[in-house]
Every structure is written in C-alpha cells, then in structure tokens.
Amino acid sequence: TAKQQGRNRFNYFAPFMQEATRARLILANEMRDALMQNQFRVLYQPVMELSSGKLVKAEALVRWQHPTRGLLCPSEFIPVAEHTGAIVGIGDWVFRQAAQTAKRMQVLHDKNFQVAVNGSICQFLEGGFNVAEWLDYLAELRLAPNSIIVEVTESLLLEADHTVVHKLQALHHAGIALSLDDFGTGYCSVAFLKRYALDFLKIDPSFLMENDAGADLCEAVIALAHKLGIRVIAEGVENQRQQAQLQAAGCDFGQGYVFSRPITSDELDDLLSSVDKPINIHRTAC
Ligand code: C2E
Ligand code: MG
Ligand code: MG
Ligand code: MG
Questions:
Q1: Which residues form the EAL domain (predicted)?
Q2: Atom of ligand 1 at shortest distance to CA of 255?
C-alpha cells in the first residue's frame, strides 16, 4: 500500500520517470525527517463571531519550513503526505500544537477559545490517529475536549467506511467538535449533515454570494444548518461587502483576509490582548 511504501526510502530514480513524479518522491523522502528536525510550523487563522466582532476561534494551518525551498504551503506537500501516510505523524503533531495554543489562549484570554485542526481521510483509517491518545493529551493539558474542532471534508464523509465512522463517533462522544470544511464544493447530501452530528459547517469561498442568486443560496444554507442545530462559519471572507451580507444572512462566524491572514500563536496572543484595536493583520506569506 501507499502507506507501506512511505516507510521505505526512494533512493534511485528510473530514467523514464516524469519530472513531477521525481519531484514528489524527493519531497516524500525529505518529509521523513522533517518532523524530527522540527521543520513544520503551525499558523492560526482567526475566526470572528460576526455579531460581536470578537475573535473566538482559530484554525490551525500547517506550513513546512523547508531547508532549501523556503516556506511551503499545504497544497505543495499535503497531497504527498497523504499519499505516503506521513500525514498521520504530521496530523498528530499539528493536533498537539493546536491543543497547546488553545490552552494558552484560554488561560490568557478566553476560557471558551477553540482551535480547529484539519483531518485527512488517511488519519481516520486503520493506522491513523488514535482517539484515546488524543484524549489523553487533552487530559494532560487539562483542556476540555470541546476546545478542539476537527474539520473534515464532504469527500471524507462520502468515503467513510466503518473505521472512519467509528472514529468520528468517538470524537463526538468525547466532546470534540466536528466541522464540515469546504461545504458546497462536494456532493454531500443534506442527510449527511444530520447523520454525523456536526457542530459547524464551513461555507466554501466559492459559495460566497457574488450576486443575488448566490446570496439566496447562502441564506438558505445558513437557515438549513440552523434548523439542524449546526452553526455556520464562512471561509475566505475577503471584503466588507461579503462580511455585511453574511452577517445579514445570519451567518455565525467569519474567517478570511478581511479579518486576518493566518498568523503565529504569538501574534494570536497579541491580537487577543489588543481587544480595543480593530483586527486587521495582513501578512504576505501563504
Ligand atoms: P482549508 O482547511 O479550507 O483552509 C482554508 C484555506 O484558505 C487556508 O489555506 C487559508 O490560508 C486560506 N484562506 C483564508 N482566508 C482566505 C481568504 O480570505 N481568501 C482566500 N483566497 N484564501 C483564504 P492554506 O493554509 O494554504 O491551506 C490549504 C488547505 O490545506 C486547507 O484548506 C486544508 O484543507 C489543508 N491543510 C492545512 N493545514 C492542514 C493540516 O494540518 N492537515 C491537513 N490534513 N490539511 C491541512
Ligand atoms: Mg479547514
Ligand atoms: Mg475550507
Ligand atoms: Mg480544504
């Protein structure tokens, strides 16, 4: 399997290999030691409560500080990590970082602060993360499980076999919050929203109202989610017009460049300290 392959080094390249394939194999090789060499970083993107303008949550987004290639965005290495199975180790590490940050923000600023992590399908299969280990870590930190949100995609729910469903249920029963990421880009049926006891639904940026029809659609999704007891986070909110429309449509939370780019945990701490200042941090990194 792909996961077993990931445990072997790829130390030669057949001449017929495509350049892109070679590049991926090199990256997969380099990734094996990246975790031990502490090359991964986690940035946190603020999530605002739209009604109050308060910063109440953040999403953990991984980066790879590559020794020669600079700071790599998830799109440049997560697919490789998923293919080799390295995502399991990376995901566990991101989870622990996220939990530490949630603890720090709760102690310093807001006892209800939540941090979200992204989940890949491989993490939910056999050999993926261990729910009991995650819960032990939270207990060690004295962090309530509902301080953590696990984001999954529609395709993960669609592909869900019994192992995946079992883990989703275990997280839910432990009190960890579940969020459906990138909603509107896949083929999730409304029935899924109810079946998986979701706490949050994240509306994909591609779904945001560019016109009246889009606004109606957004409003309908928000109303439907609320009917099912699910709160809505709009992603990729880039301008004040979108922010105002979402607020008018009853959307609960917003995340996007109009509020802040992904930032370090120290910057998050600063941001939460400067409650009086309007939040507007712009960084050029991915
Ligand atoms: P996502 O979970 O949907 O995360 C939102 C992405 O949108 C992030 O990209 C974020 O930087 C970007 N974004 C935020 N606000 C705006 C905006 O206003 N406009 C636009 N155009 N984009 C915005 P990023 O950090 O590059 O992450 C990309 C994807 O990589 C994430 O999408 C997520 O699916 C995945 N990812 C990130 N971290 C992890 C991780 O630790 N584990 C796993 N499995 N996947 C991860
Ligand atoms: Mg996400
Ligand atoms: Mg998303
Ligand atoms: Mg995504």
A1: 24-276
A2: 15
